Amino acid sequence: MSHRNRRVFVLQLAGAALAVGSVRTATAQSGAAPMVDPKDPLAASLGYVEDASKVDAGKFPQHKPDQSCAHCQLYTGKAGDKSGPCGIFAGKQVSASGWCVSFVKKA
Ligand code: SF4
């Protein structure tokens, strides 16, 4: 490898390292876990909806208007956040204004 070729190779390596670094940084910055898809089989089986005002009252008569993920014991998101983790959906986030049949009122 000539001196010039070696220099180009080193620069290419540095560029590749920077590219990998920026992808990692972007991932870390976005950081948030993905949202639960209401069509996901587990979510669908629990009647999860992202907007509690759209709960099917015929199917889930137990749902009350003041019930949403933000007021559920299984929700561990911060107050005021639009979404956060739920104990049922590991590695994902639910909408703070969502609801599912496993709702348990926060004490
Ligand atoms: Fe929302 Fe609670 Fe159901 Fe989780 S268990 S999706 S926090 S209502």
Radius of gyration: 22 Å
Biggest sheet, spatial arrangement of strands: 1-2
Helix/strand structural class:
alpha+beta
Helix content: 25-40%
* List of distinct ligands in this structure: iron/sulfur cluster
- Percentage beta strand: 5-15%
Which residues form runs of ≥5 with pLDDT under 50? 8-29
Number of strands: 2
SSE sequence, one letter per element = HHEE
Average per-residue pLDDT, rounded, comes to 82
Compute the number of helices. Answer: 2
Distance between the first and last residues' Cα? 70 Å
What spatial form do the alpha-carbon principal axes imply?
Answer: globular
The main β sheet shows up as: 2 strands, antiparallel
Give a written overview of the molecule:
It is a single chain. This protein has 107 residues and is of the alpha+beta class. Helix content is 31%, strand content 10%. The protein has two helices and two strands. The protein has helices at 3-30, 41-45; strands at 83-86, 89-95. It has a two-stranded antiparallel sheet with strand order 1-2. Strand 1 and strand 2 (89-95) form a beta hairpin. The radius of gyration is 22 Å and the shape is globular. The model is unreliable at 8-29 (pLDDT under 50). It binds iron/sulfur cluster. Residues 48, 69, 72, 74-75, 86, 88, 94, 98-100, 102-103 line the site of iron/sulfur cluster (SF4).
